[in-house]
Amino acid sequence: MPTTMKAARIHAYGEALRIDEVPVPQPDQGQVQIAIVASGVCHTDIHATSGDMAGRPSLPFVPGHEIVGRVSAVGAGVQQIKEGDVVGVPSLHWACGECDYCQAGWETLCHSQLATGYSVDGGFAQFCVAPADFVTRIPHGVDLYEMAPILCAGVTTCKGLKQTGARKGDWVVISGIGGLGHVAVQYARALGYQVAVVDISDDKLELARRLGAELTVNAQLNDAPSVIQREIGGAHAVLVTAAAKTAFRAGVDMLRRGGVCVLCGLPSGEFPVPILPVVLGGLTVTGSIIGTRVDMDEAIAMAIEAGVKVQIEKQPLENINDIFARLSKGEVLGRVVLEIS
Ligand SMILES: [Zn+2]
Ligand SMILES: [Zn+2]
């Protein structure tokens, strides 16, 4: 068992990550230590490292919240998980279990929650530790690199789609076909929706078409809301996964009357909500953030049953800054997954 490990850490907001040699974290009571195999790179990691979200992490820290690996040690009191088990560590690192939100089944809204790769060191490293109660079991026989992004991109979009309340046969628009969006298209198909997609990259639209989208709109060349209103009479639901702020207002404008726009993307800032269409059209605009442990189990099971397949590109940990640069410019097709071991 090594005593030190490689970890990509942020030392100053907005600056490049540094690959450091740091001590291997040891599991406290109730925690497990995980030898990381695969670690997905999410757009939120860029927000974390640039320090543009609320409650900035204390420096230095290790980003990364789509972690799959093998349990390499267990702390005192851990019974349900043993060494060698294959587990995932999601973004929801820990929640209190006692507040009103936790008790009502909304642990993702817990004010005391800890976030992996944000308030607690995450997955851009060879090892991490996590509370045994909050790691997720990964079923046998799945590709661990393809499974890692389900831990954020998968559960976030699966939960977001459920929050739309859409029914089989309804038109659902997925706005933004990045790491989240291309997974969302597949969950939406699995849930029986008719899927339209909006993006500004023809490559990403083509990927969405291959994954089952019936209508694709390039928002750089067209006024996407007009096309959606004209072609399908407006969407029953829109899931905004885009990292661009303009997509948020456009998402509301794509709805038919009674429609629901669920926001998952996380650019900082604001967008104008038009009062008359929302009131007269009975529209709903709501946010959706990751998912609970129950949502996670469902997202994993559905991914396996329905054949939801993340398009991955494997990269070594050392390339993390280059990956961030490409992700910022929208140049990643699907998801980059760090091949840690
Ligand atoms: Zn994420
Ligand atoms: Zn709580």
Summarize the structure in words.
This protein has 341 residues and is of the alpha/beta class. The strands form four sheets. Strands 3, 4, 5, 8, 9, 16 and 17 form a seven-stranded mixed beta sheet that branches. It has a six-stranded parallel beta sheet with strand order 12-11-10-13-14-15, sandwiched between helices. A two-stranded antiparallel sheet has the order 1-2. Strand 10 (171-175), helix 5 and strand 11 (194-199) form a beta-alpha-beta unit. It has two domains: 4-151 and 291-339, Medium-chain alcohol dehydrogenases, catalytic domain (Quinone Oxidoreductase, Chain A, domain 1); 154-287, Rossmann fold (3-Layer(aba) Sandwich), CATH 3.40.50. It is built from eleven helices and 17 strands. It has helices spanning 43-50, 100-103, 144-147, 153-164, 181-190, 202-210, 224-232, 246-253, 275-280, 293-306, 320-328; strands at 4-9, 18-23, 31-40, 67-74, 86-89, 92-94, 114-115, 127-131, 136-137, 171-175, 194-199, 215-218, 235-240, 255-263, 284-287, 312-315, 335-339. Helix 4 packs across helix 5 and helix 4 (153-164) packs across helix 10 (293-306). It binds zinc ion (2 copies). One zinc ion (ZN) binds at residues 42, 44, 65, 91, 152.
Distance between the termini: 14 Å
Instruction: List how many beta strands DSSP finds.
Output: 17
**Name given to the CATH homologous superfamily of the largest domain:** Medium-chain alcohol dehydrogenases, catalytic domain
CATH topology assignment of the largest domain? Quinone Oxidoreductase, Chain A, domain 1
Bound molecules: zinc ion
Number of discrete domains: 2
Shape: globular
The largest β sheet comes out as:
7 strands, mixed
CATH class of the largest domain: Alpha Beta
Mean pLDDT: 97
Radius of gyration: 20 Å
Order of helices and strands: EEEHEEEHEEEHHEHEHEHEHEHEHEHE
Structural class: alpha/beta
Number of helices: 11
Spans with pLDDT under 50 lasting ≥5 residues? none
CATH architecture field of the largest domain:
Alpha-Beta Complex
User: What portion of the residues fall into strands of 2 or more residues?
Assistant: 25-35%
